[in-house]
Amino acid sequence: TIRPVRRSYYDPSSAPGKGVVWEWENDSGTWTPYDMDVGITIQRAYEKQHPWVDLSAIGFCYIIDFATMGQINRQTQRKRRVRRRLDMVYPLVSGTLPKSQSWPASPGAAAAPPVPACTCPQCLLVMSVKATAGPSTATLQPRRATPAPPATPKPPLPTTGPKAPDGVAVVRGSLKLLAVQGSRRQAASTPALSSAGASSSPPGIGSSKGSRPSLGTLNRSHLQRLAIAQSRVLIASGVPTVPVKNLTGSSPVNPALAGITGILMSAAGLPVCLTRPPKLVLHPPPVSKSEIQSIPGISHSCRKTTKKQAKKGKTPEEVLKKYLQKVRHPPDEDCTICMERLSAPSGYKGPQVAVKPDLVGKLVKCSHVFHLHCLVAMYNNGNKDGSLQCPTCKTIYGVKTGTQPPGKMEYHIIPHALPGHADCKTIRIIYNIPPGVQGPEHPNPGKSFTARGFPRHCYLPDSEKGRKVLKLLLVAWDRRLIFAIGTSSTTGESDTVIWNEIHHKTEFGSNLTGHGYPDINYLDNVLAELAAQGITEESLAQEKD
């Protein structure tokens, strides 16, 4: 049975071009990928930071909500989870290419009356390649005892090049390089690679006897040597590599797809080198207790937090009095909290506070001006920890604390290096927060919360800057700023423990998810995130005091 096949090209900036796949959770709990066009539509909306996208415009009655990572059926209101994967790598091609192609034509076309040559994009592309490169479709034939063919000019080859990994599979539309390199080294029993005219019929249709021998007659070791030799040439010359999962494994599915990929790309004369994809490495090799070391300059190796201790004795008015100056003549501008003019009374309509609505104050550090009535209301709606954060510029007054639930933080040195930090060992941080019941400072007091994925392992280089980051993370932990209770952006689950705007590296030996190494800017970025929470080197001195 012969069936037509087709291939599609996508822009490198699209979802398949970046290796992004969107999937939905089916009734059996497994994940099913969306059709390519649907995935591209979802990814485009995601990159534009839209809160949701309606798929009815492309024929589906679904809404994708990025805040909860869920798919909602507009008719039944049924909700399913969705997820975004970043580990699907697609083959890359170069040049100006059409969007879609199909090949071959119907098998019965040869018996039909003569018709004009096919003008589909693929046929035009293939014919143009053949016209410029000459006969280039390689066939395998037994070596004959005939005089050596005329010398073929050698392509420039590098003297040294990257070694192809074991098991690399190589496919190319024209195997002239392989013929030049390999035919001079192989014994007389090795098949020669010679160019033959391209045949429009698939293998097995209209082909003469002996033109395509069975692969079973080929010497395995010779073929492996030829494949590796050509792969070195292709990789060194800049041929795109296509990572393929399970290249030598027992499952036939992925290797079969790899072969089809190579066949389709070689049909247009495009070279391709199939390799194994990089693997996700979340954890370091096993470490014994004797290899674990304490961190110099940091006492202990574990830190615990308990439930929040309520601060007593200070009213909101007393707290704000430390950070404000009264303004007798308000400027002619809006209060950025209630959006009313500062010269008019506050527009806040919530619970009454013991401050006149027409009083105006200026924050002493940043000099931003607000209604006192609005600032007291904002403080009452926050954590009430004695600190205040300017709603305009985020300047922090006092010591900011969070609502992180009780848990434990462990930290030590392990004798392994992170990618990009080969000159030092690694600091491993282990966070462990159990599930529990929300307190009065949490979104839903009295309701239970979950804690997924704990213990969570995070990694820092054991360098001077890495130790500085660890010390500041310890301050953030003590101030309950590393975690919070809310809605997970990855699973959509509510009332669960989530990260609180201080990014951590949870991937030890790779960076496939974006949460690993190498990342030359990570330490600087996390220092900036800590500073945004009011945690700087000055905080270390405050903690000692």
Question: What does it look like?
Answer:
- It is a single chain.
- The chain is of the alpha+beta class.
- Among the domains are: 16-86, Signal recognition particle alu RNA binding heterodimer, srp9/1 (2-Layer Sandwich), CATH 3.30.720; 316-397, Zinc/RING finger domain, C3HC4 (zinc finger) (Herpes Virus-1, 2-Layer Sandwich); 407-542, 2-Layer Sandwich (Enolase-like, domain 1).
- 21% of the residues lie in helices and 19% in strands.
- The protein has 11 helices and 26 strands.
- It has helices spanning 15-18, 36-47, 121-133, 176-182, 220-236, 253-267, 316-321, 372-380, 464-478, 522-532, 537-544, and strands spanning 5-8, 21-25, 31-33, 52-54, 62-65, 70-73, 79-85, 100-103, 138-141, 169-171, 192-195, 241-243, 272-275, 302-305, 324-326, 360-363, 369-371, 388-389, 396-397, 407-414, 426-432, 436-437, 448-449, 456-461, 483-486, 496-499.
- The strands form 9 sheets. Strands 3-2-7-6-5-4 form a 6-stranded antiparallel sheet, with helices on one face. Strands 14-20-21-24 form a 4-stranded antiparallel sheet, covered by helices on one side.
- Helix 4 (176-182) crosses helix 5 (220-236) and helix 9 (464-478) packs parallel to helix 10.
- Its EC number is 2.3.2.27.
- Residues 335-394 form the RING-type domain.
- Keywords: Cytoplasm, Ligase, Metal-binding, Notch signaling pathway, Repeat, Transferase, Zinc, Zinc-finger.
Short description:
The protein is of the alpha+beta class and 545 residues long.
